[in-house]
From TrEMBL:
Belongs to the ABC transporter superfamily. The keyword Hydrolase does not apply. InterPro entries: AAA+_ATPase, ABC_transporter-like_ATP-bd, ABC_transporter-like_CS, P-loop_NTPase. GO terms for molecular function: ATP binding. PANTHER family: OSMOPROTECTANT IMPORT ATP-BINDING PROTEIN OSMV. It comes from the Bacteria. Involved in beta-(1-->2)glucan export. Transmembrane domains (TMD) form a pore in the inner membrane and the ATP-binding domain (NBD) is responsible for energy generation. Keywords: ATP-binding, Nucleotide-binding, Transport. Residues 7-241 form the ABC transporter domain. This is ABC transporter ATP-binding protein.
Length: 260
């Protein structure tokens, strides 16, 4: 069964001193699935994500990636198989867009022409204009463009799995919406498995197949939005109430039949 799972956490715990940042978490992410991790600040979301690519090592429990025990995979090789997108984009400020995107294929020893071709392919994939963006520095990009470059860079080594830590959190709502939709399309088109952290339950509901709710290092609940709505946990229900309230307020305030 585990071979069909892209990532599996089995009773995983990670402590920092006396704090269990991730506390006995078991979670399976199926190949091709889009899972959102939702929870308050300090609930263990980033720690859980980084355990999968061994940026953080677990104290106990087992993590498998595509059926292999992550402990048995060289961490550098593992990180090539798993793309990682940071909230801030995590781009090298002194490198051009093309050099940021091409850095992994270049380090892997791909010929210069192949790297250039891959960069163009990736720019097209994330819908950035090649001629106007290729040579710019990250500081000359908008926040949304920077995140598109971050996604392109994470995809450069052709990973099958993408980990995303609040990738669209710092963007204005319209850009955030557009990037979320575009990424969801990419996820499907490339057959990726995606685990994305978000603070925003609406974003989780709209983008993900399944939602995992973290609190105090524990996995409180997991399931589709519909499944979560029948949870008996007050915190899970409260998280779901926010998007509901927003929809109700928007419906009351916005006249029907406006621009689509
Ligand atoms: N390297 C570390 N050393 C000590 N404590 C840490 C370390 N990394 C995380 N923690 C603690 O572990 C807990 C979980 O942190 P984590 O970053 O996983 O939470 P999070 O849910 O991602 O939070 P946020 O939404 O604010 O990014 C927090 O209390 C944090 O302070």
């Amino acid at each position: 069964m585990s071979s069909k799972l892209a990532i599996s956490y089995h009773h995983v715990t990670k402590r920092f001193g006396s704090l269990a940042a991730v506390d006995d978490v078991s979670l399976g992410v199926a190949a091709g699935e889009f899972v959102a991790i939702v929870g308050g600040s300090g609930s263990g979301k980033t720690t859980l994500l980084r355990l999968a690519n061994r940026l953080i090592e677990a104290d106990s429990g087992t993590i498998t990636v595509e059926g292999e025990d992550a402990r048995n995979v060289d961490p550098v090789a593992l990180r090539r198989r798993i793309g990682y997108v940071f909230q801030s984009g995590g781009l090298f400020p002194h490198l051009s867009v093309a050099d940021n995107i091409g850095i992994t294929p270049k380090l892997l020893g791909e010929p210069v022409a192949a790297v250039a071709g891959r960069v163009d392919e990736l720019l097209e994939l994330v819908q950035l204009d090649r001629t106007s963006h290729r040579e710019r520095l990250p500081e000359d990009l908008s926040g949304g463009e920077r995140q598109r470059v971050g996604v392109a860079r994470a995809l450069a080594a052709r990973p099958r799995i993408m980990l995303m830590d609040e990738p669209f959190g710092a963007l204005d709502p319209l850009t955030r919406d557009a990037l979320g939709d575009d990424y969801r399309t990419l996820h499907r088109k490339l057959g990726l498995t995606t685990v994305m952290i978000t603070h925003d339950m609406s974003e989780a509901i709209l983008l993900a197949d399944r939602i995992a709710v973290m609190r105090g290092g524990r996995l409180l609940a997991q399931g589709t939005a519909a499944e979560l709505s029948s949870s008996r946990d007050d915190y899970v229900l409260e998280l779901l109430r926010t998007p509901r309230r927003q929809v109700e307020r928007l419906n009351a305030l916005l006249p029907m039949g406006g621009a689509a």
